[in-house]
Design goal:
With 333 residues, the chain is an alpha+beta fold. Helices cover 15% and strands 22% of the residues. The N and C termini lie far apart (41 Å).
């Protein structure tokens, strides 16, 4: 895989001010479907967020935990349990799931259901209301927060009229057991009609090819439609999740069809997104991206949240994630 492109620093930028994107950065994001911004978080902020993460991992209780594992839903259905489905206004902890067999064990549990690692080293993900319930992480959304690139200013640069943060996650790709995530599009899981999701992905530790950094199919957002969506299972019980064919629009507003031809084989080459701690990666909701398993002895903790457009789009009751009673979090005051 080829290395990814890195956004140049805006001229005259400083770590003491919050800013949006330059015209060149917006052009690169629209062209490639992703944008890497080094040093979006200073070291003090990274250390504070890591300390908060480790505190969460150390302090959560196993006594009342259903031992729910995280899955994209491709291989199993335990993402459909109540612990997962009702996590939209809570901070909950999801264990690593077996992704494939040897040579690297990919599960936090043995065949008898007992943890194979200390609990803090067995968690795949913490979600999905971290951005509201954890003060250190909530501070990133503040207009004059701790990020050099304010999420609100970034959203404004990308043309959002009413950006809403609907979910947030701390993802811990644990040493040796951190599983691969197959190619996917974020708007499949966070569908609006028309699609509008953008991910803001912050590296809290260095992400390398060895510990499972992201990789991107550059430009795929221009030709890859959102053909399916992840929804609550429409049966009598209302329990569980499934994928269904998309009935609404499959490209964002302003793009009614394929904007550029796909690769001849329909796949193309993924570009590695190795980044240093403190980097911000913006990810278009239609972009195909993935990450490999962590084969190293080093972890890869990241923080990510997603923004959707609240103006002129529909986010319906079929989506797996439903808004809290106060609604999704508005980025603009």
């Amino acid at each position: 895989m080829a290395p990814s492109r890195i956004s140049p620093d805006p001229a005259g930028s400083s770590s003491g001010s919050t800013q949006g994107l330059t015209a060149e950065q917006v052009e690169a994001f629209n062209r490639d479907g992703y944008l890497i911004i080094p040093d979006a978080l200073n070291q003090e902020t990274v250390s504070r967020l890591l300390a908060e993460t480790h505190s969460m991992l150390d302090q959560f209780s196993l006594e009342d935990h259903p031992m729910t594992k995280f899955s994209t839903g491709e291989k199993s259905d335990h993402v459909g349990d109540d612990y997962f489905l009702n996590s939209g206004d809570k901070i909950r902890f999801f264990f690593e799931e077996a992704a494939d067999p040897s040579p690297f064990p990919q599960d936090a549990f043995d065949s008898a259901g007992a943890l194979t690692k200390p609990k803090a080293k067995a968690i795949n993900k913490i979600g999905h209301y971290v951005h509201a319930l954890s003060p250190p992480f909530a501070s990133l959304l503040a207009p004059e927060g701790t990020a050099s690139h304010s999420p609100a200013a970034v959203a404004r640069s990308l043309g959002f009229e009413q950006p809403q943060c609907l979910q947030s996650m701390i993802i811990c790709k644990q040493p040796e057991i951190g599983g691969a995530v197959p190619p996917h599009q974020d708007s499949v899981f966070l569908y609006t009609d028309p699609p509008s999701a953008v991910g803001l992905w912050y590296a809290l530790e260095d992400a390398t090819r060895y510990n499972g950094c992201l990789s991107f199919l550059r430009g795929s957002h221009r030709w890859a439609p959102i053909q399916k969506r992840f929804v609550r299972r429409p049966d009598a019980t209302g329990a569980g999740t499934t994928f269904v064919a998309t009935e609404g629009r499959v490209f964002p507003a302003g793009q009614d069809s394929i904007a550029s031809p796909p690769p001849p084989d329909g796949q193309g080459d993924y570009e590695l997104g190795e980044v240093k701690a403190g980097s911000l990666v913006l990810i278009h909701g239609n972009l195909l991206h993935k990450s490999e398993k962590n084969t190293s002895d080093k972890g890869r903790i990241i923080y990510t949240f997603h923004v959707i457009e609240g103006h002129g789009t529909t986010y319906d009751e079929r989506n797996w994630l439903q808004p809290p009673k106060e609604g999704f979090t508005n980025l603009y005051e």
